[in-house]
Amino acid sequence: MFGQSVMVPGDVRTGRQVAPPWGGLPTATQLLCSFQGTKFADHELLRSAHALAALHARRITMQDSRLVAEMDQRRRELIEDIDEWFHERGPRLLDGLIHTETLGAVIDRLAWRWVDANQMVETDGARDQYARKRWHRLAELIDGYTELAGDIVGGRRRFPGRM
After folding, report:
1. Looking at the whole model, is its pTM more than 0.90?
2. What is the dihedral angle through the alpha carbons of 158, 36, 112, 75, rounded to the nearest 10 degrees?
């Protein structure tokens, strides 16, 4: 469904591998690549991010409320997997302001916005004002994630549930 997104970060086109710069936390570019289905297999967290985007993409088309509930349960499991991954491998912070969401919740929201923006482009075209608004919102979330990741590594913020 989303084989080629409208927004492709520069390092995706060069094929250059990007190592996680923040103690294993993926960059925003790596998350976008995983949502798109590229460069995610070698990182456990990125595999979960890819699966979240795939679930969101399928969820849009679902009519059966039972299937939607099953997908939402699977999303919760993936969010917990991401949070567990971070708690096992992320920096151990005692100080720092607590963020309002876990890492898994942040990545789930990014995945949903990515799917939503792509879906709008596919149905209404890239020049549609609503599609542009959705891409703008996604860009804001990406900037927020980048800032948050820097704050986590810098010890200025921490995710809930970890002491």
Report:
1. no
2. -70
